[in-house]
Specification:
Layout: E1 2-7, H1 15-30, E2 34-39, H2 45-56, H3 62-86, E3 91-94, H4 96-99, E4 101-103, E5 112-115, H5 119-125, E6 129-133, E7 136-138, E8 144-146, H6 152-162, E9 167-172, E10 193-195, H7 196-204, H8 212-221, E11 225-229, E12 237-240
Parallel strand pairs: 1-2, 1-9, 2-6, 3-6, 9-11, 10-12
Antiparallel strand pairs: 4-5, 7-8, 11-12
Helix pairs in contact: 1-3, 2-3, 6-8, 7-8
The structure holds aspartic acid and magnesium ion.
């Protein structure tokens, strides 16, 4: 099987968490799967980058800001590949442009269009775990663009769609999707499955668990998403077309 596993910033916040995620990825590869890993920037890195840019300029150019923000994911992808390699498994990190993830040129809020070339496929065929930076792609002008806050989810679903993956697992700090905000309502219930349209409604209402465009893309390409906790075992929530 071909699997995409995405890890959010809190799942990669420090070296120990990166190692734990790397172990999970290697386990999936040892079970005989081809594994593509999508990573977010570590912890609050993106917030720090935004504030560092605003210290330099009150109105940074959108092109430079996107190239700058994309470095957060680049750092975590390299660290993840190093962690996997240190555990004895071949791995390679690829940025959005190295992977061929083509987007429109809308800086800060780009849409994914397609995957160009077969770099990921070739690296998988060579037996490597392929770690791809979330949140970014390349425009037809050849510039780095970002997909909007929380956009690494969208990278994961886009790659799952374009690579024909059998599974798309999103590892996060909550153990699934709840019917209401579990931080506000103590009686909120975790859902085993949720349809694309209901998930889209929750995402648009501000549920942080999935990026809304990722759900749109999943619906369009019928990518089933499994939302899982990095920290607690459990079945999580399947986001899928409801019968
Ligand atoms: N690092 C980016 C953000 O914080 C993208 C992501 O985490 O999905 O918005
Ligand atoms: Mg993040």
């Amino acid at each position: 099987m071909r699997i995409v596993q995405k890890f959010g910033g809190s799942s990669l916040a420090d070296g120990e968490r990166i190692h734990r995620a790397a172990e999970r990825v290697i386990r999936a590869a040892q079970e005989g799967n081809q594994v593509v890993v999508v990573v977010s920037a570590q912890g609050d890195t993106t917030d720090h980058l935004i504030s560092a840019a605003s210290d330099i300029s009150a109105a940074p150019s959108k092109r430079e800001l996107d190239s700058y923000l994309a470095t957060g994911e680049q750092m975590s992808a390299c660290l993840m590949a190093m962690a996997i390699q240190a555990m004895g498994h071949p791995a390679i990190s690829l940025t959005g442009w190295q992977a061929g993830l083509m987007t429109d040129g809308n800086y800060g809020d780009a849409r994914v269009l397609r995957l160009s070339g077969d770099r990921i496929g070739r690296e998988l065929a060579a037996g490597k775990i392929v770690v791809v930076t979330g949140f970014q792609g390349v425009s037809s002008a050849g510039d780095i663009v970002t997909l909007g806050r929380g956009g690494s989810d969208t990278t994961a679903v886009a790659l799952a769609a374009f690579l024909g993956a059998d599974k798309c697992q999103i590892y996060t700090d909550v153990d699934g999707v709840y019917d209401r905000d579990p931080r506000k309502f103590s009686d909120a219930v975790r859902l085993d499955t949720i349809g694309y349209d209901d998930m889209l409604r929750l995402a648009r209402q501000g549920a942080q668990v999935l990026h809304d465009r990722c759900v749109e893309l999943a619906k369009e390409h019928d990518v089933k998403i499994q939302v899982l906790s990095s920290f607690r075992p459990g079945p999580g929530t399947m986001v899928t077309a409801l019968p």
